Amino acid sequence: MEPKIPLSEVERLVEIKVRQVLAEMLGVATQPEPSVLSLKNAVLRLGYQSERQLYKDIESGLLRVGIEIEDRRRPGAKKARYFIDIPAARKRLASAPEKRKGL
Questions:
Q1: DSSP code of residue 47
Q2: What average pLDDT does this structure show over 89-96?
């Protein structure tokens, strides 16, 4: 009986999977994480449970537009399109509340 998948294809797939598992074990990202994400994509990366929680922190001034938050709305548009600088937001969220200026 002839194999349905060529041996070279099996070897290639095994190599890809081994690289993925090793990268996870060593904590090495196979692809660099983007530093700026849309609000929708940043929710889980920053440890929030919903976009609403993130919006509340933006409205309260915890995360500041122009520093951790970019407003990328089109000229003349009323609705904001927020993008979050992930490293800056993580730094801000990790800082002690008494050291945060602007609150």
A1: T
A2: 89
- Name residues whose C-beta falls within 8 Å of residue 58's C-beta, 6 or more positions apart in sequence: 65, 69, 82
> Sign of dihedral through CA atoms 20, 34, 96, 53?
negative
Backbone dihedral region of 47: left (phi > 0), alpha (psi from -120 to 50 degrees) or beta?
left
For residues 78-89, average pLDDT: 92
Query: Tokens for 62?
Result: 């915890």
The SS3 call for residue 37 is strand
67-73: Cβ within 8 A, 24+ apart: 67/92, 68/92, 70/36
Query: Which residue is it, tokens 């801000």?
Result: 92
Write down the pLDDT at residue 4.
Answer: 76
Residue 45's pLDDT band (boundaries 50, 70, 90)? Answer: confident
- pTM of the shown model: 0.62
